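Title: Prediction job returns without error message
Component: structure pipeline
Severity: low
Priority: P3
Assignee: unassigned

Description:
Job completed but the reporter wants confirmation the result is attached to the right record. Sequence as submitted:
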Amino acid sequence: REGVEKVMMTNPGSPDSPEIGGTATLAGATLIYARPRLTLERVEAQVEAHGRRIDVTSVKGQVGGGLVSAQGSIEVGEGFELVADLQIRALDARLELNEFDIDTHADATLTYRGPIASGLLQGEVQLADTSYTPRLSPLDILDKLTIRVRVVGGVEIDPSVLGEEKDELIR
């Protein structure tokens, strides 16, 4: 992480009952996530805290030359548990997923709701100019992924019941 940051926040409350106030800004930062390898560059962010609520008024950055932005809020619970309600957008973000030998450009409209460590990311992702240079077979990739399929109507299918039929899914 690098960049210029300005943080002016207070917490007159306690860890069990936070009462945060103030603002935080970030300019020109680079954030690197190790797995999957993802670099967010030229990050600009503005955050305001009001009691137990942190308003993410604006986060913008570039991924592979494309734009990524987010806004929403984060509630601070007991013991500083963070619960998010965020809207995330990507426009022509280039993703190089070397672990899976995939290079693509993505447009996305997503929401992230729930605890920061275990929330639900959902929405629509459109891929363009996608290339796959295999070092692994498609079956090897399916074996590496954790898949959860949800069918309209709330019926959930456990992928382990698919067994050897995975071959049919990729044809």
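Comment from assignee: result matches the submitted record. The longest strand covers residues 82-97.
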